[in-house]
Amino acid sequence: MAENNLGNLFHYDKKVTLSEVAPLGLQHVMAAFVGILTPGIMIAKVCNLSAEDTTLVIQTALIFSGLATLLQIFPLFRKFGARLPMMMGASFAFVPILLSIGADFGIAAIFGSQLVGSIMVIFIGLMIKKIRILFPPIVTGTVILSIGFSLFPTAIKYMAGGAGNPDFGSLKNWSVALITFAVVFCFNYFSRGILQLSSILIGVVAGYILSFILGMVNFEPVKEAAFIQMIRPMHFGFDFQIVPIMTLLIMFMVDAVQTIGKFTATTVGAMDREPSDSELSGAIMGSGLANFIGSFFGAIPVGTFGQNVGLVISTKAINKFILAFASAILLVAGFIPKVASLLTTIPFAVIGGATISVFATIAMTGLKTIIQEELTPENSGIVGISLAFGIGVVLSKNCLAGFPGWVTTIFGSSEVILTTIMAIILNLLLNHLKKHLKEGRKSRFYNSKGEKSMGT
């Protein structure tokens, strides 16, 4: 395939062949798959679900990740979905709160709270034009930068073998991870055309083969998995309780801000423009609709996937059929557990080695967005103070021990949440309130013609 035939991959609507989109679509699946599966597994364990119900949670996570992605690239009624290249998946951002709700109130309370929260998200999407003033580039850039920073530990833990792995930090895990990274690095920076665009997939394949040779791949889950299994509506039911609902409402509000940040990162980094109001509205409303329907089927909340944002930015491949292909794989894996179980055999070390450079791309996109603004003392303060609080609190374990447990759950578990809230507040104080006060003082000393008032 000639390199000059690949140009359509960099246009959203152009026609492409299956052979062109398949490698890039597989890359997106590889980057997202572990992240999609892990939250459901963790929640199933804390809720003491049976093996059958655990499988059902994993299935719904895969299916609704695929459906939510299709909704973003092919909007429903031109309202629900952004028509932008974004991979959606079971969101890690919700995991700490969902674990707390599941342990204290049960899994039905999770889906009852999700049902209420998703309705609020749709209303936020409807009002985005009125509230977008809260999210100028200095704020979204800071949020994107914090997203990149928050993903760095994830990549490193994966490279070391995955937290909780008995071999965590072993030389074998690091060898596989670093060789995988080296393959990705070489193809990304020293090749061209389809080889460069497929660098993540090539790295994963190379790392997987090495892992198999070293005896790190276990095919037992594939043997035990069923061939076909359908999901069931209302299997887990709903339980509406005020504390879980209020807690998850806050998280949905913060996730809406993260959605704005990640869609902004995608358009700025891969399309050289800011997203429109209608695109952001559709993005948030699409996410809300997917979570609303998902709550009936036992699908934990879906959100934007930062690692896939990095893939889109690093490759600039924004064609909608790439993510449509990835969504099809997720849907097939959701209904055919044997496919899903095969993808789970990829060792964490391989995933970490393949994605760490992607996470770095996200952080650099945030930095690029920030420096496009004038770095006034006010803007520097917004970025620096927001990151100081967001990252500092998360790194300082038990620093919120004197507060109620929900405070730690919401603000102490993710760098992104507190960074986002601080950036919004500081921007309002320094770039809006301060400017308003300064103009008010000036008007006291000058008349409407700009002449100095008498008696000053």
From TrEMBL:
Primary location recorded for the protein, binned into one broad class: membrane
Transmembrane annotation, as ranges: 24-44, 56-74, 80-99, 106-128, 134-152, 173-191, 197-219, 321-340, 346-367, 379-396, 416-433
Any Pfam family the entry gives: Xan_ur_permease
Keyword Cell membrane: no
Source organism superkingdom: Bacteria
Entry keyword Transmembrane: yes
InterPro entries per record: NCS2, Xan_ur_permease
Keywords: Membrane, Transmembrane, Transmembrane helix, Transport
GO molecular function, one term: xanthine transmembrane transporter activity
Example of a GO cellular component annotation carried by this entry: plasma membrane
Entry membrane topology: Multi-pass membrane protein
Cellular location(s): Membrane
Protein family according to the UniProt entry: Belongs to the nucleobase:cation symporter-2 (NCS2) (TC 2.A.40) family.
The name this protein goes by in its record: Xanthine/uracil permease
Originating species: Paenibacillus azoreducens
